Amino acid sequence: MSVKFDRVAVFGAFKVGAALSLASLISLPASAQTITAVMQSGLRVMDPVVSTAFMTRDHGYMIYDTLLGINEKFEIKPQMAEKWEVSTDQKTYTFILREGLKWHDGAPVTSEDCVASIKRWSEKDSTGQVLMTMVSEIKVVDGKSFQVILKEPTTLLLESLAKLSSRPAFIMPKRIADTPSSEPIKEYVGSGPFKFVDSEFKPGLKVVYEKNKDYVPRSDAASWTAGGKVVNVDRVQWLAMPDQMTPVNALINGEIDYIQQVPFDLLPMLENKSDINVEVLDKLGSWTYFRFNHLHPPFDNKLVRQAAMNAVGQEDVLKTLVGNPKYSRTCPSVFGCDTPYADAYGQDVVVPSNIEKAKELLKEAKYDGTPVVVLHPTDIAMLSAQPVVIASALRKAGFKVDLKTMDWQTVVTQQGNQKPASEGGWNIFSTYSTLATSGDPFGNTTVASNGKKAWAGWPDVPEIEKLRLDFARATDPAERKKITAQIQKLAIDEGVVAPLGQFSVPAAYSKKLTGVLPSPVTLFWNIKKAEK
Amino acid sequence: MLAYITRRLLATIPVMAMVAVVVFAILRLTPGDPAAIIAGDDATTEQLEKIRQTMGLDKPIPLQLVQWVYQLLQGDLGVSLLSGAPVLGMIADRMGPSLALAFGTIVVTVSVAIPLGIVAAWKQGRMLDRAVMTFSVLGFSVPTFVVAYLLIYYLSIKMGWFPVQGYKPLSDGFWPFAQRLVLPVLALSGVYVALIARITRSSIIEVMGEDFIRTARAKGATERVVLMRHALRNAAVPILTIIGIGIASLISGVVVTESVFNLPGLGRLVVEAVLARDYPVIQGLILLFSFFYIFINLVVDVLYPIFDPRIRY
């Protein structure tokens, strides 16, 4: 059989094919774009109520919404709520939901969903737990409104519902929020500006979000978690790359658009690139600190704790950890500097390294040479420098130090060990927290001082616990400032926590991206991506 | 031969059972707690306990072992403690990049290293031999990640020929698949080329001193025939052994290369799972790796008689 080619027919077919191809190109939406971001680690735990991991929190902000938001002036604004009304006795808050809120499966958001979500969240969150002791009832009024009735007036209600980190009060459908808070949720449906694409999820490697086309953003400008969450791209994909050099090279080569955190030592590779922005988006930054085990010698003695705090200098820690004064600063405040409750008390104790003073205090305390076990995680760059500097300063002051090297997960497990160092316990560990989580006496778990119920270190300072409750009850900002100043003084004097300084880790992104929002949490709304 | 293979396959069962029990025990003795990872470092003891109960980690260790073995017998490796994803699915997802990297590296290694080893043995003591041995020392000495960064700098960033990172499955097309494998394969091949070239050279040099080589030469065989037909075949057993070990370690242990090039392979999964104390994932992977080692050893053993007829099973 032979086939004859008709030139006219072939040319015609070619024209039709070309026209179809062109049409298909034209029919692509103008904004068919994907932002590829490399995050600080892979997403593995998906439940932002069960886990306080930052990746889980950032995932929460993608797919869930919050009832209230907070802006860069620390003002609480309605987000899912249209508004809230407060009774004259300041004890009943009525929240009214915005019109047009929908879950990703198309069902409308109701006040029942909000009540169930707040209840589940408050079982786990440290601030939520305190709040619930002050709440007499949360009740549904109708499909669009619900009430929180307080036993006594407190601003903690609005503050905790607008909480930025690390366990924001995300709103979930009631059927999901009814999951016991000790069990991770298994369905990821929110009402937030992005939808989670389950079929493309690779735990620890890749997460894909697509624009929630049904999302109705607020009309006011976006600022932190408040304002309009306007999504300008079709997809956002998060990748995890274990070698920190890889995303830097990939950004230079145009393979990715965004790096959430650039290690300080690799910044010079990006800072002089004309097509890349290097910017600190989390202006609050993080603070690093160390904790003593108050239960056992030698740090069950206040004078020995003070000796150690005098010995360690913040400049030495920050030089080793950050190495670039542009991204770090000394700060004595346990609530961070440049925050509403910043306080300079203890500047002379925690900022400089005063070895002579430390020696005097050790002598006065009659330190008997009990070895001090310092936990030293080596697998996380942001945590491995501090123990080395602490150990060196303590040795100079006359402490006998045993620096124990391990991975971070072992440190986390060791932290809970209340036994003496001679039986496998510890005396000092250091870590860091974002100031978004540490700016007040409730978000900042390091100042909790209720003995064995407190966080690792178990300080027992009843005056601080009383002040924390006073803070929850206080509604006047000036009174709260006074209370936090008292907590600062006690925290330093009693050696509850020893601040080691503040730092900010910059992000880097392609100049194709515009509208990247500065915020203590990583946000992907408001961003536009240019074609070239 | 068939009886031998069957016997060897049956022997894998007790070996793997032993591996399973040892790995299970070691993991439970290692400090670290997956519940603490999920809950965060500020979780209270009460919260941790509740999560442990939900995960079944509060049960006695022997009971946990029995439950896991029961699951295994049903072909179920369990689910990740962190993500809740099935372990089998996670391993299957990560298998592709590891197999592609291992296969590519072995092909490049064998094609380069054996000829280099033969040439070095043939020109023993001369410039060419010294050049090959110098390259071999370099291949051993320069860490893979340094080679990887140099390749990325020159071939990706300067020349723009290859992407810096990532992996595309073959189903996305041959070129996208191959393009992302070239640099990792080149980076990883260096050390294996060095190793196999050295083994090939020394094995051939050893064989070249044997009586049958002198006999071959005496009967008038050319040097090429002596080398290729008589020497290489008799030197094949150690070379084959090294290639076998190489394949097994390539599949399970190329964490650095996978990390530098962002390949989502099994090596990375092991490290991630160990750091997160994700017990079911670690257990599943170690079982798989032990099976790989046993299987590849078996294949190598089965291949020996082809190259050396004196070996009989």
UniProtKB/TrEMBL annotation, chain B:
One Gene Ontology term from the biological process aspect of the record: transmembrane transport
Pfam families with a match to the protein in the record: BPD_transp_1 (PF00528), BPD_transp_1_N (PF19300)
Coiled-coil annotated spans: none
Keyword Ribosomal protein in annotation: no
Gene3D superfamilies linked: MetI-like
Stretches that traverse the bilayer: 9-27, 99-122, 134-157, 177-197, 237-261, 281-307
Any one cellular-component term (Gene Ontology): plasma membrane
Family: Belongs to the binding-protein-dependent transport system permease family.
Protein's UniProt name: ABC transporter permease
Organism of provenance: Microvirga brassicacearum
